[in-house]
Amino acid sequence: MERLQKILAQAGVASRRKCEEMILAGKVEVNGELVTTLGTKVDPDKDTITVSGRPIKGEKKIYVMFNKPKGVITSASDNKGRKVVTDYLKGIDERVYPVGRLDYDTEGLLILTNDGEFANLLTHPKHHVPKTYHATVKGIPHGSALDKLKGGINLEDGMTAPAELEYKDIDEVNKEAVISITIHEGRNRQVRRMFEAISHPVLRLKRISFGDISLQNLKRGSYRHLTKDEINHLQQIAMSGLLKSKTPRKDT
Ligand code: URA
């Protein structure tokens, strides 16, 4: 027997806190009976649970990695009719949600799942899951400028945590550089703001890895299911709040 809000969150309905609000708001029924008491114990294998009349029991857990193209919204729908990530997930019938978000103009690795607990675990700021980006920036930053970002830089929402940075490519002709940056937080437009703070605005941004999971040769606009090992690995890394620095695997 498990607490109702935990079962709802695990089924990908919403975060546990939101599920509690749904229970209190009278949206949840167990075996046809309205339940508004938090902490009610249910048996997910036997009880029929509905949210606003829709059954949630037995939903298959889906975990996918998607190579998001630029110009796509990290959302399940968009009221302005722009392309959204779920437009690319042909063949997946379950409702999946992005784990964290990438800006409209950012491309690269995005994980989507219907497992709300897993998503919360990976995006919780306390869990420090490392995320690596390749940022093409305007101008060629000096080592001292990169050192500022490595140590932490003051943005309008406070100091950033230490980050790992290295040069990937320097284009002397066009005066651009590609820098690999690994951050352990997930603030809004964080990488772009960090480079803006050292006066090297980002021209192109691509996330190449999340934890130890990397895009490798996944084509832009394509997705694949994560393996059991990859799912377990991400869970472990988030649980242990691993801060170790890592070298992403070879990427396209
Ligand atoms: N940092 C950014 O600036 N943008 C993203 O999309 C992700 C990280």
Automatic annotation (TrEMBL):
Report the coiled-coil segments: none
The biological process GO terms on file are:
enzyme-directed rRNA pseudouridine synthesis
* Domain RNA-binding S4: residue ranges: 2-62
- The EC category is isomerase
Could you tell me which Pfam families the record lists for this protein?
PseudoU_synth_2, S4
A single Gene Ontology MF term assigned here is: RNA binding
What keywords would UniProt list here? Isomerase, RNA-binding
EC number(s) given by UniProt? 5.4.99.-
- Enumerate the CDD domains for this protein: PseudoU_synth_RsuA_like, S4
Offer a single GO CC term for the protein.
cytosol
Q: Which family does it belong to?
A: Belongs to the pseudouridine synthase RsuA family.
- NCBIfam families associated with the record: pseudouridine synthase
What's the protein here called?
Pseudouridine synthase
